[in-house]
Amino acid sequence: MSYYQKLVGERLYLSPVSDDDLELYTSWVNNLETTLNLQLATGIISQDKERDMIQKLQEGYNFSIVLKEGDQLIGSCGLMDVDLIQSRGEMGIFIGEKSQRGKGFGGEAIGLLLAYAFHLLNLHNVMLRVRSFNEVAQRCYRKLGFREIGRRSECVCIGGRYFDEIYMEMLDRDFSATLPELKALSDK
User: Is there a domain that residue 131 lies in?
Assistant: First the structure.
């Protein structure tokens, strides 16, 4: 499988989502540990259904997260509900490859995605949703500059326990990083 380096970071790059990764994506979206943090935990996703999902991802602002070393696919991130007139969107991310979690790859991928959102799509506001029990993700988002803007109380029920859904956002003026290609343009 060959990937395309659309947005390049220090240790990884974002590539268009490919049909060739169908089997790996299907295994990730059927892994309960991975999907508890997403809205897919209750779903049973066949390869045919995942193929449809991948085709929809290819139509939007979605990327595969690929490590530079070895061109290993480790996850996915993207922007949903993008409104170019109101300059807003919602982001989502997951690291499907369990062995690659906790190494800062999610934060790096989000940085690239936000640079794309703010500097190429010219969005002003990017929000996300995270479940209250996912403290690791919350710390990552806060470290990157997201701030909590609200909660939907006890709207997620897992194992008979209720959890909040936390809404967070970042404005373009709060984001300072840029893509190297764009920095080179501003230096001219």
Answer: yes
